[in-house]
């Protein structure tokens, strides 16, 4: 399912939902999974977007990436930071920031 194979999304037949490969949702059985090169193909096949990873919303993904990039820049500074202060600086919970960084 890696992106280098041209797969950008996967869908689960039993739930009718499609996700990004990076989605944290519980993994489905391989026999119930279909792969798609883009979100539109999954939508056309009758699958709905996952509410967790929002695969049809590129802006939401970009906002998350921007927050992570900002956190990385703050970590590169010489001033020591705590997880709590770093999370506050990028408007994320410490739990979610820790999962991404």
Automatic annotation (TrEMBL):
GO biological process, one term: regulation of DNA-templated transcription
Annotated EC: 2.1.1.63
GO molecular function: DNA binding; methylated-DNA-[protein]-cysteine S-methyltransferase activity; zinc ion binding
Keywords: Activator, Methyltransferase, Transferase
InterPro entries listed in its UniProt record: Ada-like_dom_sf (IPR035451), Ada_DNA_repair_Zn-bd (IPR004026)
Every Ada DNA repair metal-binding domain range: 6-56
EC main group: transferase
Protein name, as recorded: ADA regulatory protein
Gene assigned in the entry: ada_1
């Amino acid at each position: 399912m890696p992106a280098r194979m041209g797969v950008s999304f996967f869908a689960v037949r039993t739930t009718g939902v499609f996700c990004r490969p990076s989605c944290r949702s519980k993994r489905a059985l391989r026999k119930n999974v279909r792969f798609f090169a883009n979100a539109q193909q999954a939508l056309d096949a009758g699958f709905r977007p996952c509410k967790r990873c929002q695969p049809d919303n590129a802006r939401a993904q970009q906002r998350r990436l921007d927050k992570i990039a900002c956190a990385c820049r703050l970590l590169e500074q010489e001033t020591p930071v705590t997880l709590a202060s770093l999370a506050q600086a990028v408007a994320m919970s410490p739990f979610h920031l820790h999962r991404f960084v």
